[in-house]
Amino acid sequence: MSLMITDECINCDVCEPECPNGAISPGDEIYVIDPNLCTECVGHFDEPQCQQVCPVDCIPLDPNHQESHEQLMEKYHIITAA
Fold first, then answer.
1. Which pLDDT value is given to residue 1?
2. In degrees to the nearest 10, what's the CA dihedral of 24, 12, 41, 5?
3. Distance CA 43, CA 28 (A)
4. Is the residue at 64 inside a domain?
5. Which PROSITE patterns does this entry report, sorted A to Z (predicted)?
6. Looking at residues 48-76, what average pLDDT do you find?
7. Which residues pair with 3 in a beta bridge?
8. Which residue of 12, 60, 63, 69 has the fewest C-beta atoms within 10 A of its own C-beta?
9. With pLDDT > 90 as the criterion, what percentage of the chain qualifies?
10. Under a CB-based contact definition with an 8 Å cutoff, are residues 20 and 49 in contact?
11. Number of domains in the chain
């Protein structure tokens, strides 16, 4: 599964630089996560780094983009090979 940022986001700017895949960017009103780039930090870290630094806990799993650990690892290999 990729992650998503909910409307509780306060635009504190701490999540974007923590993403090793560059999946987080400023949206129209709040930060957004590109599900094509989000691997939940699989391949980089044991836990999603954006969730670790978020002060308002507004980065849950995105139910619209469900992926297994194996699929996330495959996506990691594709992203890092590019």
1. 78
2. -60
3. 29
4. yes
5. 4FE4S_FER_1 (PS00198), 4FE4S_FER_2 (PS51379)
6. 97
7. 61
8. 63
9. 98
10. yes
11. 1
CB 16 within 8 A of CB 26: yes
**d(Cα 76, Cα 39) in Å, to the nearest integer?**
6
Residue 8 lies in a domain: no
- SS3 of residue 7 by DSSP: coil
Is residue 9 in a domain? no
Give domain status of residue 10, yes or no: no
Is the pLDDT at 30 greater than 80? The verdict is yes
Question: Pick from 16, 2, 21, 18: which is nearest to 80 by CA?
Answer: 21
Verdict on whether the full-model pTM lies above 0.90: yes
* Average pLDDT for 39-67: 97
Per the listing, tokens 């599900």 go with 35
**Exposed, middle or buried by CB within 10 Å (0-12, 13-18, 19+), for 37?**
middle
Domain residues for 53?
16-81
User: How big is the chain, counted in residues?
Assistant: 82
